[in-house]
Design a protein that fits this description.
Elements lengths: L5 H11 E8 L2 E10 L2 H11 L3 E5 L9 E6 L2 H13 L6 H13 L9 H16 L4 H8 L3 H10 L3 E7 L2 E5 L1
Antiparallel strand pairs: 1-2, 2-4, 3-4, 5-6
Helix pairs in contact: 5-6
């Protein structure tokens, strides 16, 4: 297996790669894809970048070949792709890359993964805010806590907020 150089990779991606944007729920996300019939080539590209995933598309007809797909869609992983193609500019897909890069710059992922300790701290802060009567929408906005995880923690500990405020704020049952 030959070692891939940046120039070779650039040429290969100009021919077999795709810088695209996908839309979901009125939001746009960058997606980088390379397809090939060679599994070893796709694995080398994945190894070169150190990010992304490889999937297989099975042919619908017996006369067609299996296609291997390398794709990158996660925020931190797309950064790696952007850095490479900023340093080594694509020739044929220059405009496509510029649109891809602009999409990335405008992309604000809902939740960037954080360290476990930071997540626990944020959940504790969210619970405190909840007990103080702060609306849930505001809690999620200010702490970046995932709504499903937040409700899961509240249910796990049996924390409930009553509608009737008491002298010290809202009543809670623990």
């Amino acid at each position: 297996m030959a070692i891939i150089t940046p120039d070779y990779l650039l040429g290969f991606i100009d021919g077999q790669g795709n810088f695209s944007t996908i839309s979901s729920h009125n939001r746009y996300y960058p997606k980088f894809v390379v397809t090939s019939k060679s599994q070893s080539m796709i694995k080398q590209i994945q190894s070169f970048f150190g990010v992304g995933k490889v999937s297989i598309i099975q042919p619908k007809k017996a006369s067609h070949s299996v296609i291997f797909v390398y794709s990158v869609t996660k925020y931190e992983e797309v950064k790696v792709i952007i850095e490479f193609f900023t340093k080594y500019s694509p020739i044929i897909k220059a405009k496509e890359f510029q649109r891809f890069k602009e999409c990335f710059e405008n992309w604000k992922p809902k939740f960037i993964k954080r360290k476990r300790d930071e997540g626990i701290k944020a959940l504790n802060e969210a619970i405190k805010m909840y007990k103080d009567g702060v609306p849930v929408k505001e809690i999620v906005k200010n702490t970046n806590v995932d709504l499903k995880k937040f409700y899961s923690v509240l249910n796990s500990y049996g924390i409930k907020r009553y509608r009737k405020p008491s002298k010290g704020g809202f009543q809670h049952r623990l």
